[in-house]
Amino acid sequence: MTEAPKPFGLRERQRRAIEAELRAAALKLFGERGFDEVSVAEIAAEAGISERTFFRHFPTKEDVVLTLMEGYGLDIISRLESQPLDRPWFDVLRNTYTGAYDVEVTMAGERSEELRRSTAQVLKLAQGSTRLRAGIDARARTWQDDIARIVARRLGVDIDQDPRPRVWGAVAIIVGMANAERHAAIDGSLGVSPAEAWDALAELLKPPTGT
Questions:
Q1: Which residues bind DNA (predicted)?
Q2: What is the pTM of this model?
């Protein structure tokens, strides 16, 4: 069973509060005008802080919203590490993604319902911004590599010699992003579940019957 997130100290709570204000301000402005049309100075002004304070928390404009996804990333890695060794990897990944989606609060202490809605908004914004899309793709490649390394370690194989870890890493990201894009397309409806995406993949992988 995944442990509940531990309470944060005062300094950490203050840091998170400032970052939440910046994120809310950024999403508001991005939603009104588009990602590429909003500057860091405007985000800081909307949140009532200085640009210097902004850069103490986020190195780039992209990071103010892309860090939304890191709570899920922490959950995914933790859940992958804790899955039983004797399960098929398809089942391991399906259970991992479904479990991370179903929790009320992520391992990073974020409210999952709010996180899903905000992530859906970021994905919709990325449809109109190559810069934001590039940031999402870069993070996806990092998560894919992380998952592949976990698979290799748990299978006891060399990631550079055995293709399975990288294949499973790619599958996990493709299914996860496909589900997230669908989530964004219907305005973040909470009726979308990763289980649906994994079940759809299982159907596609079934051998054809008849001729």
A1: 39-58
A2: 0.75
